[in-house]
From TrEMBL:
It holds the Pfam family Flavodoxin_NdrI. SUPFAM superfamilies: Flavoproteins (SSF52218). It comes from the Bacteria. It comes from Enterococcus raffinosus ATCC 49464. This is NrdI protein.
Amino acid sequence: MNILYISISGNTKAFIKRLEEYGKEQHELDSANPLISAKEISENSIFEVEESPFFTFVPTYLEGGNGVDSGDTEILTEVMREYLEYEDNYKKCLGVVGSGNKNFNYQYCLTAKQYSEAFSFPFLADYELRGTSADCERVYQILKKKAVN
């Protein structure tokens, strides 16, 4: 399973590392379980055409508004949006997983929800901040199920 992700504060990167380890453990138990191949997208990334299906992981960083009636502005994660737009990479995306801080109520995972709407791929799962072991297991199973369908 291929994953593209962006990590600003390190939370998403930490979650992806744990998710990769969990996937490796599952693969060792049963080789039918897929391994995870993750690629971080950053301001320094060279844009490429994605050849294989992938999942996108994006945290939420917004400025201004409340995301409901007074709008909001995506900040810090725009490079992922640009990467998905590049040569229609978004067409290979099987879905998006969002993260954030539940203290922000409606804005929790709002960037991932906006990507889902803008690019017409499903919002698959969420986790808070760095996630838990249970989140890794849950997200892995969701991705695995979506990858085989």
